[in-house]
Amino acid sequence: MLLGSIEAGGTKFVCAVGNEDYRVKNSVKFPTTTPEETLGKAIEYFKKFKIEALSIASFGPIDVQYTSKTYGFITNTPKPGWKNVDFVGLLKKELDVPIFFTTDVNGSAFGEYTVAQLFNEKIKSLVYLTIGTGVGGGAIIDGEILGTKGHPEMGHVYLKRHPADSGFEGICPFHKDCLEGLAAGPSIKARTGIAGEKVAQDDKVWDILSYYIAQAAIQQTLILRPDNIIFGGGVISERLLKKVRRDFEKLNNGYIDIDDLENYIRMPRVKNNGSATLGNFALAFNELHK
Amino acid sequence: MLLGSIEAGGTKFVCAVGNEDYRVKNSVKFPTTTPEETLGKAIEYFKKFKIEALSIASFGPIDVQYTSKTYGFITNTPKPGWKNVDFVGLLKKELDVPIFFTTDVNGSAFGEYTVAQLFNEKIKSLVYLTIGTGVGGGAIIDGEILGTKGHPEMGHVYLKRHPADSGFEGICPFHKDCLEGLAAGPSIKARTGIAGEKVAQDDKVWDILSYYIAQAAIQQTLILRPDNIIFGGGVISERLLKKVRRDFEKLNNGYIDIDDLENYIRMPRVKNNGSATLGNFALAFNELHK
Ligand SMILES: Nc1ncnc2c1ncn2[C@@H]1O[C@H](COP(=O)(O)OP(=O)(O)O)[C@@H](O)[C@H]1O
Ligand SMILES: Nc1ncnc2c1ncn2[C@@H]1O[C@H](COP(=O)(O)OP(=O)(O)O)[C@@H](O)[C@H]1O
Ligand SMILES: [Zn+2]
Ligand SMILES: [Zn+2]
């Protein structure tokens, strides 16, 4: 059996086919240009394989409410040409298979959840947060993707300011100093003039970032009580997560008992950014069998 | 059929029996003294009725994990005498009926959820936040109580400070300036020297509180995407919620589309603090039929 995966990002698309072991059999990558060209390439790719179901993990915002008239659409994205594009509808016309549609971070969250089940880890709920060009998050609660009215937008929560960061206004176009405005990659450049990948390891900006990322982990802990909080995205490194765990402990101050913090706040188990593709295979499989 | 409800608060217990219409047939109130005396009174009360199931909505922290050795216990509460009390076990010994055990706020959340279903409202998910002596919260997601590893502790999230409140340290014994430390009833007295019920309506403390309560609503919106956020507790009034809605709109800044804010951020539908009792009846009924 072959299952299809589209990881639809704002800059590139990754299409893949895999089997029911969720192993990648073939994959292709191309830049995100116009919807016609990009979705055309995806359709052309999947027509070469006999896939039985497809799952799409897409950039957003997207409409995931089944009952909505614009279900399956990318909605009011600032990305030129992509506003109100009927992503699922266009694919459905050309590929006659069940299609599951979710956010990029939900795809990654579900991939990590699936791997945890395959490894027999006692994980029923988890959160996946990505800190990259933006900040996004998805959660799996008792095996189900969280978000019935719409998908979460966990990147835009407000936070307590770091004392050494009070002069920085924040760069979220909606909220200025929300999590994304304070801790996504571009905020590093806005503060230091240098892109995150080139900033010295001992720069104080890392302590500022970890303070905010730790607060996001605290919020998720207090609201969702997940088994794991997983961090991905270009800004995240094991070095930064060490600081995040340190700040989490300080901010939590013993209030919620976390038995293994190293494992609680961690990087993805699936390597090479493969969480979303694996998640898509599992979600496509589920879509076929429901 | 008779169903039992215990609303176990830190200062008082409310025991009630009701029928499968979730109407109160009889109820009694007594102060929370020692566990022996208080639970003894509850047992004595329910022995007078032929209840078929019981639900307890308790102050916490409590252990709600079925697989845990201390399931059904009140755990490390600061309340003298109540630490590590086997609440469910002690009742089970004397009352031979199925018992459901959850937090006070989960009970209230489930009561409001149940009423919404009875009124045919299109509500699948909601959050109940209480702002009283402390701040607590519970959520119902697709009809299920949220929190598998443990119950939420939504009152202790960190927030962006109100510019006119930067001189106030916050009074949470764990975190100082978390939501509870900044917005619970005692914070009003700590700032003004006057208890909340006596502070003038035009005092600026109400704008400070509403700013924090609105941020809590923003967080819940971004993380859980519920259909409604319901506020209870002594500090909450329709007057304060007006300010909360105003601040919510400013802080959201059009990011998440809320069609009817008046209905989205609101007081409980069940009057006279009856949400938890009604929720208990529904939870007891479910416990009997699962
Ligand atoms: N090693 C690094 N340390 C810190 N920031 C980094 C690092 N590498 C990339 N970044 C930043 O991460 C952001 C890109 O994130 P990424 O997750 O790769 O892409 P996207 O979010 O667009 O999918 C950029 O702002 C970049 O400067
Ligand atoms: N009208 C009011 N306005 C503001 N605060 C109030 C009002 N009435 C009571 N409070 C405050 O609410 C808190 C008590 O909350 P309540 O929900 O009644 O009790 P508890 O949380 O202990 O169950 C106290 O701090 C009290 O000062
Ligand atoms: Zn924002
Ligand atoms: Zn606190």
From TrEMBL, chains A, B:
This is Fructokinase. SUPFAM superfamilies: Actin-like ATPase domain. It comes from the Bacteria. Belongs to the ROK (NagC/XylR) family. Its EC number is 2.7.1.4. Keywords: Aminotransferase, ATP-binding, Carbohydrate metabolism, Kinase, Magnesium, Metal-binding, Nucleotide-binding, Transferase, Zinc. Transmembrane segments: none annotated. Its cofactor is Mg(2+). It is an enzyme of class 2 (transferase). It catalyses: D-fructose + ATP = D-fructose 6-phosphate + ADP + H(+).
